[in-house]
Amino acid sequence: MDYGRYTENLEISLDAGILRVALDNPPMNCNTKALHNALTRIWSDVHDDDDVRVVVFTGKGRAFSAGGDIKAMQHTVDHPEEWWPTATEAKRIVYRMLECDKPIIARVNGHAIGFGATLALACDIIVAVETAKFGDPHVNAGLVAGDGGAVLWPQAIGFPRAKEALLLGETISAKRAEEIGLINYALPADQLDAKVDEIAGKLARGAQRAIRWTKQTINLQLRQIAHPVMELGMANETLSQFSDDHAEAVKAFAEKRDAKFE
């Protein structure tokens, strides 16, 4: 499989059946057009690649991914026609991560916020540095949490806690995320790689058909939930994308003040 076509904003290497995929848009690995588009396609390649037994998905620098970029948000507010590819790709990324039969380990090296949290939660096993924070603050930007949060958070931690997280848009620590079952492990930085490598090694040495087919069986439930929820979620996020509240939130962030939602 030729992963060379994903060189913009992704760093990829394959060794002994372990494919390491790193978001590479420092310092916070925010979304770019190239990155978003690449993530719609790479998981299908991974699914079809017999040389890959397990994926380690991480971020370069000090964050896993901070999700959306304010400058990019302002650009989309000013040029609304550019929103449509983003809306379509957001659904495809989640669908294809859930469809990919290779186990994906999220190595969360820093904050996972917004769509960054969605990327982490769409993985199969999540190992985070204990200083990381998780959150989906779409509502704080006047947006609907339609690009995966409304699907993945309730399935992991139940509806009451998920509603609190998504309706308030607040972040939680990795330790708290571990306590409530949002992630598997929250570890000191000097233990992160050892734990990830331990899990990746076990999966790479394991019975591949059994592992892949077990993942497919478990994820069937998530896939059935994801499709209708994300169709409505992205439709509603599109409506909110064109709202005055979203434009005000982006402007307020740039001006370093609280948004005044009407």
Structural summary, described in words:
This protein is α/β, with parallel strands linked by helices and 262 residues long. Helices cover 52% and strands 16% of the residues. It has helices at residues 33-48, 70-78, 83-99, 115-121, 149-157, 159-168, 174-179, 189-205, 208-241, 244-254; strands at 10-15, 18-23, 54-59, 63-65, 104-108, 111-113, 125-129, 133-135, 172-173, 185-187. The strands form two sheets. Strands 1-2-3-5-7-10 form a six-stranded mixed β-sheet, sandwiched between helices. Strand 2, helix 1 and strand 3 form a beta-alpha-beta unit. Helix 2 (70-78) packs across helix 10 (244-254), helix 3 (83-99) packs antiparallel against helix 9 (208-241) and helix 4 (115-121) crosses helix 5 (149-157). The radius of gyration is 18 Å and the shape is globular.
